[in-house]
Amino acid sequence: MVQRTVVVTGGGTGIGRASAEWFARAGDRVIIAGRREPVLREAASAIGARAVVADLSGPSGARALAEAIDGEIGVLVNNAGGNPDLQGTPAPAGLDGVRAAWQRNFDANVLTAVLATEALRERIADHGRVITIGSIAARSGAASYGAAKAAVEAWNLSLGGELGPRGITCNVVSPGLIIDTEFFNGQLSDERKEMLISQTATNRAGVPDDVAETIGWLASPGAGHITKQVIHVDGGAYAGH
Ligand SMILES: NC(=O)c1ccc[n+]([C@@H]2O[C@H](COP(=O)([O-])OP(=O)(O)OC[C@H]3O[C@@H](n4cnc5c(N)ncnc54)[C@H](OP(=O)(O)O)[C@@H]3O)[C@@H](O)[C@H]2O)c1
């Protein structure tokens, strides 16, 4: 197998870390990016990856990521994101609070993916892969977080059209409930967890490796004619298309 350079944003924890491990195990050169240096360095050392500390919601972080990488990129996994409403910093009251909540979800989920991709766009290898993590929330609600993930799906459609002539595929992987991540910040009650599990056909919560395996498959040569798609990894909790 040809060794590729694989960039996983948000690769220090959860789904991103499992994906980074998947590619490292497959023999690829892996670069993980995130904001918290100690978290990233610990993960990088455990995985055998390289860490780039960067806040990807702004242009300077995206530029720093691009400057830290040499050569062509075979796979870009836009995984950084989450729901800042769960992070415990209350938004201001009234319309200012509404605006702040929407802005920070857009920053965390849309701009991280768009800016990282734009910063690396010319360096993505022909026949490369751009895989962006969406969410079941894009189809099921969750206010500003769901709207931001829906925006990621729309953006992916245009990106797939732009990069398709170079043989680059662009897909969204949309998880349902995935435990063993920092996503819920300790705010997932047992009742809510059971309710979310009851919506699956598999009668279980997802784990990061469920998503990593799907990302790995989308990045494989055999998936070269799959693009502009949304692949749900949610045990059937969302059954629409
Ligand atoms: N867990 C679920 O149930 C679930 C369901 C659907 C979708 N998702 C999506 O899956 C993706 C991965 O989340 P996860 O569940 O694995 O949770 P997680 O453990 O919190 O991982 C999110 C990662 O993104 C990084 N990150 C966040 N904002 C960033 C920024 N501005 N710049 C750079 N890195 C940033 C975080 O690191 P730093 O804080 O150090 O930057 C963290 O490592 C997210 O896009 C999330 O929305 C998760």
Automatic annotation (TrEMBL):
EC number: 1.1.1.100
Alphabetized Pfam families for the sequence: adh_short_C2 (PF13561)
SUPFAM superfamilies in UniProt: NAD(P)-binding Rossmann-fold domains
Entry-linked SMART domains: PKS_KR
An example molecular function term from Gene Ontology annotations: 3-oxoacyl-[acyl-carrier-protein] reductase (NADPH) activity
Signal sequence, renumbered to the chain: none
Domain of life (superkingdom): Bacteria
Keyword Oxidoreductase: yes
Domain Ketoreductase: 4-181
GO biological process: fatty acid elongation
Keyword match Phosphoprotein: no
Homology family: Belongs to the short-chain dehydrogenases/reductases (SDR) family.
Name this protein carries in UniProt: 3-oxoacyl-[acyl-carrier protein] reductase
Organism from which the protein derives: Naumannella cuiyingiana
